[in-house]
Amino acid sequence: MTSPLFVAVDTPDLDRARALADAVAPHVGGLKLGLEFFSAHGAPGIRAMADVGLPIFLDLKLHDIPNTVGKAVAALAPLSPAILTVHAAGGRAMLAAARAAAPASTRIVAVTLLTSLDADDLPTIGVAGDAAGQVGRLAELSRQAGVDGIVCSGAEVAAARAAWPDGYFVVPGLRPADAALGDQKRAVTPRAALDAGASVLVVGRPITDASDPADAARAIAATLG
Ligand SMILES: O=c1ccn([C@@H]2O[C@H](COP(=O)(O)O)[C@@H](O)[C@H]2O)c(=O)[nH]1
């Protein structure tokens, strides 16, 4: 079975990204490339990373008016990402435009509430209530808009799975028990997220900042088996 573990290759250095990907490839199911890498290398960089032979998760978190997001998704289609992110807060029409513009082979997943935010942050961004409520509302909007799933933290994925049994749930902000949180605030372990119903587990710095990234990826993968 394909591993649900995707490594977040967050670096602007193409040689380092490629070396990291080659090192961890035997232990992961895919590569997540986001704003840091894409801003530095664009489409040619994504093609270079696709040569590793793993599915590519393009985490660009698109958030704009429906026409702009639809055209951006269409422009990205030649890269054939397995997963592409948009922000659920862009609204129903934007989500539907993203889904309509993507190839069938690309899963469109909508970011609900960033895992770097917690209850203290919610009033500062105009959200009343708690994280679970906000994720639940945006998950339902995403489902109704016809996208494939959502991005949420491991703390919300069980409820999301219960409400949307065939949804595709991407969970970042994961940390092995002894790992530094960094800027993540709603972290759980990769195993806990998998048990709660995650489809994809995203792990970055606990692997990429390790002295031996391949061994760190192998150790996390071993907890999932
Ligand atoms: O809510 C979100 C959405 C995306 N991310 C991305 O996942 C990785 C996490 O990296 P770590 O080093 O494991 O913290 C990173 O690329 C984020 O852009 C997220 O963390 N939370």
From TrEMBL:
Residues forming the catalytic site: D59 (for ompdecase activity), K61 (for ompdecase activity), K61 (proton donor), D64 (for ompdecase activity)
Assigned keywords, A-Z: Decarboxylase, Lyase, Pyrimidine biosynthesis
Keyword Transferase: no
Catalytic activity: orotidine 5'-phosphate + H(+) = UMP + CO2
Transmembrane segments: none
GO cellular component: cytosol
Alphabetical list of PROSITE patterns matching this protein: OMPDECASE
Domain Orotidine 5'-phosphate decarboxylase: 4-220
Enzyme class: lyase
Molecular-function GO terms, alphabetical: orotidine-5'-phosphate decarboxylase activity
Source domain of life: Bacteria
Binding positions (substrate): 10, 32, 59-68, 115, 175, 184, 204-205
InterPro entries, A to Z: Aldolase_TIM, OMPdecase, OMPdecase_AS, OMPdecase_bac, OMPdeCOase_dom, RibuloseP-bd_barrel
PANTHER family, per database record: OROTIDINE 5'-PHOSPHATE DECARBOXYLASE (PTHR32119:SF2)
Family of this protein: Belongs to the OMP decarboxylase family. Type 1 subfamily.
Protein name: Orotidine 5'-phosphate decarboxylase
Originating organism: Sphingomonas gellani
